[in-house]
């Protein structure tokens, strides 16, 4: 398994090149984000800033900018789309934290614990509205269609996950369908919209959509693993949140399948009934290590990262290409 993972990269991943190349664009995107967070209702900018200010990497809008520049964009049409992508992402986080009763987000107390669940949900709605204003302002109907569709697919993925919460018999295929909708779709749309806004030919737009989707799948699978192997200092949230919420993520599904009948009652108590006691989380971590569930999850993440990089094969010696390849490596080798 280790060989499969190390085969993907031959150097430590870094976002330095991509961040440097996109620095001026991302400064402009940040300015758009700040300007469109403004509202005469004081709680809206205060709550939005609480979450948005904690976003250090802004990977999804960065992906929109990078995709546009990769296919030769010379204007700023992608910047409003990039800001819209960040607003869509932030809105979904606000809604997710209310649904999941999360305590931390990006190293900060979750917004709903400070301003209340109703305010968090409504500010999320405000950010969705701002995203659509930005999309319209970008004056690209195809890009608007891509991001509008993504917003719908994300919502469907969230509802599907909610309806299958605590499901001990959830299949790996259905779980991948869920994360393809709720996480990978926005990565895919971010990259595709950037390419479309630059007037790229259809085959280039499709390639970048595939890159974004596989990158998003790899990113989410690593998140799934980190919830059981990371710590709060690096994660920006409490490790074990998925376990405490009874979420059937891939490491858990694999551990349950590989322990079989011997641990069935333990899984029913902790996941189905959510009757959890001190020491249960550590026991789950041990079971995941013993069964190889974490390694298998990371192996699959590396497979998707390799597929994402393969989608860039026809882009030649463009300097944005290796920077995007580094992003795929970073997604699977990060610790937070």
Key traits:
two-stranded antiparallel sheet, mainly alpha, 18 helices, 2 strands, Farnesyl Diphosphate Synthase, 336 residues, globular
Description:
There is one protein chain. The protein has 18 helices and 2 strands. It has about 325 residues and is mainly α. The chain has a single domain, classed as Farnesyl Diphosphate Synthase, CATH 1.10.600. The protein has a two-stranded antiparallel ribbon. Helix 6 (about 75-100) runs antiparallel to helix 10. The relative contact order is 0.13. The mean pLDDT is about 90.
Shape: globular
Biggest sheet: strands, sense, closure? 2 strands, antiparallel
Strand order across the largest sheet: 1-2
Which sequence of SSEs, written as H and E, runs from N to C?
HHHHHHEEHHHHHHHHHHHH
CATH-wise, what's the superfamily? Answer: Farnesyl Diphosphate Synthase
Q: Beta-strand percentage?
A: under 5%
What name is given to the CATH topology?
Answer: Farnesyl Diphosphate Synthase
């Amino acid at each position: 398994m280790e060989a499969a993972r190390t085969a993907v990269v031959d150097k430590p991943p870094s976002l330095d090149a991509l961040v440097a190349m996109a620095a001026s664009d991302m400064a402009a995107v940040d300015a758009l984000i700040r300007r469109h967070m403004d509202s005469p209702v004081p709680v809206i900018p205060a709550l939005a800033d609480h979450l948005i200010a904690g976003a250090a990497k802004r990977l999804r809008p960065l992906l929109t900018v990078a995709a546009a520049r990769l296919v030769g964009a010379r204007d700023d049409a992608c910047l409003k789309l990039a800001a819209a992508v960040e607003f869509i992402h932030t809105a979904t986080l606000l809604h997710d934290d209310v649904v999941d009763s999360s305590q931390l987000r990006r190293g900060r107390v979750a917004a709903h614990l400070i301003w209340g669940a109703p305010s968090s949900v409504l500010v999320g709605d405000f950010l969705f509205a701002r995203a659509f204003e930005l999309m319209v302002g970008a004056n690209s109907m195809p890009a608007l269609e891509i991001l509008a569709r993504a917003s719908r697919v994300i919502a469907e993925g969230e509802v599907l996950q909610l309806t299958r919460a605590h499901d001990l018999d959830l299949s790996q295929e259905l779980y991948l369908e869920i994360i393809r909708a709720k996480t990978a779709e926005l990565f895919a749309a971010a990259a595709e919209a950037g390419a479309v806004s630059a007037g790229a030919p259809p085959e280039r737009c499709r390639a970048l959509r595939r890159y974004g989707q596989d990158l998003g799948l790899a990113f989410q699978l690593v998140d799934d693993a980190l919830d059981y192997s990371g710590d709060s200092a690096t994660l920006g949230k409490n490790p074990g949140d998925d376990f405490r919420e009874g979420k059937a993520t891939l490491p858990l599904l694999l551990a349950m399948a590989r322990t079989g009948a011997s641990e069935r009652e333990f899984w029913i108590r902790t996941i189905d009934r959510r009757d959890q006691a001190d020491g249960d989380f550590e026991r789950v971590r041990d079971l995941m290590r013993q069964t190889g569930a974490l390694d298998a999850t990371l192996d699959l993440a590396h497979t998707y990262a390799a597929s994402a990089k393969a989608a860039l094969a026809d882009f030649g010696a463009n300097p944005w290409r290796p920077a995007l390849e580094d992003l795929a490596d970073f997604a699977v080798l990060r610790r937070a």
